[in-house]
Batch of 3 targets.
Target 1
Amino acid sequence: MPHRAIPLAEKIFHGFESYIRSFNTYTELAPLYFKERNWAATQLNHKQRLRLYKDLLFQLVEEFRKMLGDDADKREIWTLIRQHYQELIAERPDIELAETFFNSVIRKAYPGMSSDEELMYLMEGHSSCEIFSTAELLNSYPSSMGLDPIIRKILDDYDFGAPFMDKEADIQFLIQSVKEVILTRYNPGPETTTQILKSVFYRNKAAYLIGRTYLGHKWMPFIIPILHGPKGVFVDTLIFDPNIMSSLFSFTRSYFMVRAEIPSQVVAFLSSVIPHKKTHELYNAIGFNKHGKTLFYRDFLLHLAQSKDQFVIAPGIKGMVMTVFTLPSFNVVFKLIKDHFEPPKNMTRQEVREKYKLVSLHDRVGRMADTHEFEYFKIPLDRLSPELLQELKNTTNSLLKSEGKHLIIKHLYSERRMTPLNLYLENCSTEEGNQVAEDYGRAILQLAQANIFPGDMMTKNFGLTRQKRVIFYDYDEIEFLTDMNFRAKPKAETYAQIYASEPWYDIAKNDVFPEDFRRWMIGRSDLKEHFLSYHQNLFDPEHWKKIQQRILKGELIHAFPYPDEIRFRPEEKV
């Protein structure tokens, strides 16, 4: 049997090498498309890289199963495969990704297996990744150079493939921002230095430089967004606000395209810049979401071991499609697709899964929550509240399997826990409610600009992050905006039409009447009038049609992940 394990281990290893090569190929196309302002190719390239892992894994596992034959569920062969695989990956600078790749293969090739710490890399198979010299990772600028030369050198060091629209103006904007925000509070000394990652972060129509300056005995992080408009490349702003920087790397945004020869080093630097983000969130942000999922699961296991509270039904109105539960001490919800949907829902479980897949491949524009999909998820039975266990049996029994002291859930999604918008609006002040209601409308319109129509836009389907940002998280009715037909309601003219108990006009499946939104979008009387006045466009069919037309013409409508008021040239279009 040992001689069989070696070629099988090599098969997985070569599959991983192929994945990394292809991942890097897609990533390296991002600066080219930015240079060309080829936004359609940018979007397609992003989706192709997202699909890469599963597509490659599916093909590899099919070949692997044939090589394994009847040994697919024999632990001894898998133990030997793991031993040989460990030898193959031991010296790789991306060893953590190689471990996760092995986990993916074994989960797909070993039928019905839940997590197994003897066969899988549930915890790291290495003490840590070697810390390499930062010279290869960073560009450094000592304070002795002077502020003006530093800014000029930074812009000279990064080639965006196209001329600047007005480089001198950009330099002066940056100098002025540093003076206003930093030099009014701190005096640079000999120890002051600025570091910027050599790798540029690309997403949608923007490129980002991520850096930090050592000043006042601490590191002060910053981000410089670069845009490429019709007149050339330009610096859009300089971000020092930690909340805005955190939002740039939010679980509600698409992954960056960024070259990371040693992913752990890039993540370590990002962690120093955005310290409140968990490691798994940062791996997600740079496109290694499968390893992010591995790290999330490790966090979950460690939290389970260190906590005693029970899983409970998540607060809020129970959904018609999903059963949702949470562990109060862990900031995540777990969502299972129900066995049966009550009318008027008439979709299948597979159709719901397709909606979640659509979201995973789409630009989330900071308004849809990222999810991790799990199969054969293991939870100790004694940690489930009786009410939750009964609810799971009543609504998702086909997904459940008991295995000793554990409940195995055959399929679920994990998602960041947020405050349901409907619950928040019940108890907040009028001022707080108005601000959140405004953002609720903005969220819907920004999703529309990304070609997403949420379908069911009731407040119970939205949540609030800790920064009070409104996020959509119920995906079973989403559609592409361009597939919808926005209409004004016909005016009743006859007595029969005026008093008809049912609509007297034809309504097709994808017809939408925006004026009807007024009736149910915000219920609180002290908030409703302000909301209706602030978001008049929401109720105008022509506004929705104009967004459709822009998308159908091939326009990528850029969603700025920071406020307009901090932009150097807020009037400048991209």
Target 2
Amino acid sequence: MKRLLAAALAALLLSLGSLGHAQGQPTASVSGRVVDDQGLPLPGVAVTATSPVLQGSRSATTSGNGDYIVPFLPPGEYLVEYALAGFQKRAEKVRAAAGQTAVRVDVSLKIDAMTETVEVTANAGGSFDRSAAVSTTYSVELVNNLPIGRTPLAAALLAPGTNNNGPSNNMTINGAPSFQNLFVVDGVVAQDNLRNTPANLFIEDAIQETGTTTASISAEYGRFGGGIVNAVTKSGGNTFSGSYRSTLNNDKWTALTPFPNDRRTDKLDVIHEMTFGGPILRDKLWFFASGRHRKQDGTAQTRGTNITYDTGDKESRAQLKLTYSPNAKHTFRISGLEGRRTLKNSSFLSVMDLASLYDEKLPQSFASVGYTAVLRPNFFIEAQASRKGFTFENSGSKSTDPISGTLLVDGITGFRYNAATFCGVCTNEERNNENYIIKGNYFASTSSLGSHNIVGGVDIFRDKRLSNNHQSGSDYRIFTSDTIIRGTDLFPVFDENSFIRYQPILQESLGNDFRTYSAFLNDVWQVNRRLSLSLGVRFDKNDGKDAGGVVVVKDSAISPRASLTFDPTASGDWTLNAGFAKYVTAIANSVAD
């Protein structure tokens, strides 16, 4: 917990110094127009949004044209109420989702006939999201009831346009390569630097919902070519709540094996998950904490020699999240998630002896901090910073000695022995990133040209990887022509087909530093109750140095975005959407470095 609090405080200091954010911990806005039963705009209507996921309430007042906007709403179910003297009050139930940045709700108020009534509509046409953006959101309650894994990736694969037919069954969106997607967890870009696959750091019961956006995406978002997967964890509330879950496994339950001397550990392995959240100060300061512990013991066998050995996979994950709203205009969020994993007797590819095994540690962490402010009824700002860390420790040979640290590879089978692949006593490999953004929203209401929700800002992303990538402890690999096996003893065979490969690292890695500087501007223009347009442009400029300090990336690109939504009846019963967008992917670390 001390490490977790330190990570959260470090992220806070990082944010205050940079005013940044990681492609955003998603919040939504509810906007629309209020008219009377004759269709004339109503100014001065008090609009109030309340929800169990919201600290206090959020309010707005309609403009002279009847337009309003309520910004920075965390994902969840909302009751939006409309009140004006002389008119009947009205209430609408609205859902703000993780992959849905704006919800359009147009309502009409009836003249008060001596009595006051409240109308609540669960799925009114006015609450239909009139947006061309193709997004799907699945809550944790739904995912728990489906026969799928409880991971964000499993939830994202339910969305149309997604598939797991990429290399190694990785997810593709709209046919784009699997490394061209963007995965975000609580504002942290949660991807591996090398292959861009999603990091396996989450606590399943802590996830509130997962949103997937696949088309007509706002210019606020960049560095992808397929789509965006956005997972949001819970934030606590005004009541204390928690959960506990255990999952049972036993190595002996999967004891089928062709090897006669195989032995299995008849031991029950348990995965524990716990969550707990609630108020520290009601409507002011909430906390949410969660944890996950897994310890799985098993056995494995070497190839060719059939030596049985013990294996272990021990992992602990912990999360702490704080949400503070001193008033309805300002909100601060701090989130930290840390994982510590140890693999006992790990190996790379197929090995023939116990000297090729090593105990590997894989620590990783997410940290993010965000701030939102309503400076004026029609002007808002948002800032967020995030950092992701992932390290390989002790991953490889335990010696740099020319004999005990040299890897032997059988020339016929490709099996490995004598020493582990890579170097576990050399420099640890680190795969990290940092992301900062600040943006402002301006809401403009006009009498003849509808309303405009304009967002603009800057975004800085740093891809940082440090790897010396020794292929063995001694930097030597010997490829034999064959290997003679006598029980557990191995005797390499050398002839004219054998060779020695020496791969020294003459210059230690400085670590790469790939930076993408971006600016964006996007306008959601509600022309009238039937037609809305989204027009945006994003500028991305790359500037990066490889592990030797050489500038290898220096380019830029402009990506325009445009979409429209047409509702012929202005009721939300059905809409026609069309969009055009150009997306610019992130720097390919494996190529640039």
Target 3
Amino acid sequence: MKKIEFNLLEEPWIRVLRPDCTVEEVSLRQALLQAQFYSDLAGELPTQDVAMLRLLLAVLHAVFGRVDIHGQPVELKNTTSAIQQWRSLWQLGHFPEGPIQEYLDRWHDRFWLFHPERPFWQVPEAEIGTEYTSAKLNGELSESGNKLRLFPAYARAGKTELSYAQAARWLLYINGFDDTSAKPKGKGLPSPGAGWLGKLGLIQAVGNNLFETLLLNLILLQDGSKAWGPEKPCWELDVPHSGERVEVSQPDNQAELLTLQSRRLLLHRSDDRVTGYALLGGDFFERANAFCEQMTTWRSTQEKKNSPLIYLPRRHDTSRQFWREFPTIFTEKSNNNIPVHIPGIVRWITLLQNHNYHCLDSKALIRFRITGVEYGDKDFFVTDTFRDELSFHASLLNEVKKNWRDQIKVKIRRCEQFADALGKLADDLALAAGAGEPDVAKKAKEQFYFRIDQPFRQWLYSIDPDWDEDETDASLAAWHEQERKIVYALGNELVEEAGPTAFVGRLVKKSGNKEISYRCAAPIASNQFAYRIRMIEKKGGS
């Protein structure tokens, strides 16, 4: 009989960051009860931290979706009861020990990493699945048997085996972000795609410590308005899900969603080390309008011309800074005036900072973080992971501050137009010089966004929505002046770097209904660039 070993409630395995910037491993129980003493999670990858955050949130939903801070039964059926429950936790400044200890003690036996019948986050039925080594389990390597890393982060025993603590962390990561390389064992089964978290454009709120981060993301109402169903985390199931590639209904409660088993997994061990695992496809559900998911951005699409809009989770683009997504996350309409489905976490924070509920200080700054995975070749393997953050006054989310959000959207649109103008200038200069260098426009745009990135973040951070009209006008004028200096400086650099050949220029033939010849030269391109910038400014970025 296999030995029962490594209980996640008692053993140290969750990596946390202390205020002195040291990293420590703690148990799940410690992570919750001492969350106020830790700055943040500190896993090996940002994506691993998201998977860990969702596990901790699932426990909190299972507890405080049912009882109050004193352990008394509570029903969160409306905004008043949900806000009262959340505010009592926030004012306490830490998670109450009694309700959490009682809940974890009750389900203690469901948190054994190794157990003959109920291993945590695993099922024995996965034994027939695709076999992988620990190098594939380790997300920093993600190395399959037929794709070796030339310069791996681990070597020798570090590649071939993992400690129990490491394996437990990567178990959560693989369940959420696994690629599509595994083959099904059964015939005629549907494809679940990448792990659920890998399909999302993940977004979360971030506090001053782990307690605040967890509580800000403890969304007690769907989209800040609708009550959840009874909480059903996976460890509370009488019989764990074990079927391969099973399509399920969209969860109606957060604990079930946050513990969704996208993969059937079973760890293999030898001499107190994890050496590999077996994997099958697990549970999945329809992505369209899956608004039970509160931690993703969305994109809209239409199946037919006059049919209703459908919203799908939208992955983040690794080449785009977070602030460039502001119109599709924090406003009701995108730059193209297409209705936006605002992420549930944003709606929840908007509700919390409503002055009627006295949950968050109206002058408080809020920080949002996006995290994602970039896959290659139809999600067959992971190519990159990334994280970005953005801070601004929480009151910007107020409905009464809609004008400020519209102004920010206009400024971002103008940045995009300036970038396009620089791209056109780069193309014209390359044509004038007769150069065959590819992607000159793309490189010029990237350079512009690189230079304007920090200034824009600082400007957004500085905005106080309670400014009077004069202060508002002064801030907008100062930003415009800074923006135009950056775009003109880069435009002048591109002209200077084009060289004497581009200055002299050449005749270019343009084909259309009839062939036309025209001179393309750096001075002409520079004048056209300046004209485009003036027209953009005249239109105000609209």
